[in-house]
Design brief:
two-stranded antiparallel ribbon, binds P1-(5'-adenosyl)-P5-(5'-guanosyl) pentaphosphate, single chain, alpha/beta, binds magnesium ion
Amino acid sequence: MISKALKMIIMGPPGSGKGTISHRIVKDFGMTHISSGDLLRKQIHDKTVAGLAAKKFIDQGQLVPDDVMVELIVNELQPIKSPNWLLDGFPRTVPQAMALFKKEPVDVVINLNVPFDVIIHRIEGRWTHMGSGRIYHTEFNPPKVKGFDDETGEPLIQRDDDKPETVKNRLQQYQNLTEPVLKHFDKLGLLKEFTGKYSNEIWPRVHEFLATKTVPHQFTHYD
Ligand code: G5P
Ligand code: MG
């Protein structure tokens, strides 16, 4: 195993399991997880100016403008002490990728290649804990008590942008604006793709790949 810092990005269409796989990476490899969607939902919940501006895009399944996103993520990355971080949901356009690379080097990009028909069914059953970003699914990983978070006991919510019509727009935006980012990373030699229908099938392969890149969680001490 190589003992080194790892700055990585996880990509994939809406509902492909980026959040699910990210939580497993954090558990096993101790990386700092930054989810652009979770950050935006927190801003909306706190009714900040950025949150209110972002909400109208998110509710329509459109991407939030690049300048807003770049500022949000760069501000979030700057104070992080750990040299191991995992970006989930950013960058999503080529200009976002360019802006990130001006500020931060990235070691690896993993892409979850999950078919769209599988995704549409999944999103219908998703429930989220707002405070932590913990994700549940009515069939795949239901909470111990229906409608409530396992750890805090707080109520779970269904995301406003998980309505079928909005999900269609999100997939369209992904094809038009985010797939070119994958091509960009592939050309840079950073892309590692994982294809499959189920997170439990993809995860062991991601784990095996990351084990060659970093040290296990118990040997890292960055808080
Ligand atoms: P988000 O929040 O980044 P998306 O659309 O990229 O949203 P999303 O919906 O969060 O991605 P995910 O994280 O890829 O999906 O998937 P997940 O939550 O882990 O899994 C989906 C569901 O399937 C869960 O219920 C999970 O339990 C279940 N599941 C997982 N694996 C399996 C399995 O094997 N089987 C089954 N049956 N179920 C499974 O972004 C939201 C919006 O914010 C804006 C955009 O408007 C975006 O639409 N935004 C940005 N705008 C511009 N630029 C950016 N960089 C932006 N980032 C966010
Ligand atoms: Mg997510």
